[in-house]
Design brief:
- InterPro entries: TM_pro_TauE-like (IPR002781), TSUP (IPR052017).
- It is a multi-pass membrane protein.
- It is found in: Cell membrane.
- This is Probable membrane transporter protein.
- The two termini are 20 Å apart.
- The radius of gyration is 17 Å and the shape is globular.
- Helix 4 packs antiparallel against helix 10 and helix 8 packs antiparallel against helix 9.
- The protein is an all-alpha fold.
- It is 83% helix and 0% strand.
Amino acid sequence: MTTLEAVIVVLAGVFAGGINTVVGSGTLVTFPVLLAVGYPPVVANVSNSLGLVPGSLSGAVGYRRELRGQAGRVKRLLPASVLGAVVGAILLVTLPEDAFSSIVPVLIAIALVLVVAQPWLNRKLAERERHEHGGLLLWVGVFLAGIYGGYFGAAQGVLVMGLMGVLMNEHIQRMNALKNVLTAFVNLVAGVLFIFIADVAWLPVLLLAVGSVVGGQIGAKVGRKLPPLALRAVIVVVGTAAIVQILAR
């Protein structure tokens, strides 16, 4: 990796850390960057998941004010996220690499649709009557989102926010704080497993970790003021580039 490539990876980590804290989908920025600097898809995905863990934790800490009074929800939903992350990580390293290269473009396309549709979903969710804690259906949904996050992870935050918005009655910023905790643990659990069961490229892990920690704090402080349309436009562009790059391999 050249010095310029290293700087680009760090900057991608900053952007991903910030956008993961505010919206989710940071992987749609960092994963294509790791592909572009020469890492194979599975190695890039594993290293990306591990490298973004500190940023996820940083964002969760930055949203600690909105987490007050939600300890019960964390205790209820965290096991679902953790179990899902374990299943997703095992699927990633046991399925053939060809399967990953075939499946991920579809997952990225789904994630891009979710990112683009999120404003419309938020408006629709605001019109629904929801429950305080989401019940068993939310637990199952968070578990499935954890599997998705452990396997690839792009836009898992959008998925979790959508589930909570449909099934739980709460302010969006408090749901976002809860989402940051759940997705942070999905990345953490999957990342720890990857250390023992997968090939990890440690240089991009370190560079992404440094960038994403900074980005997580930026996202927590000023991310709400960033133009949502601009963020979504960047995500769509880099996500589309990732699909093209994987299919061209």
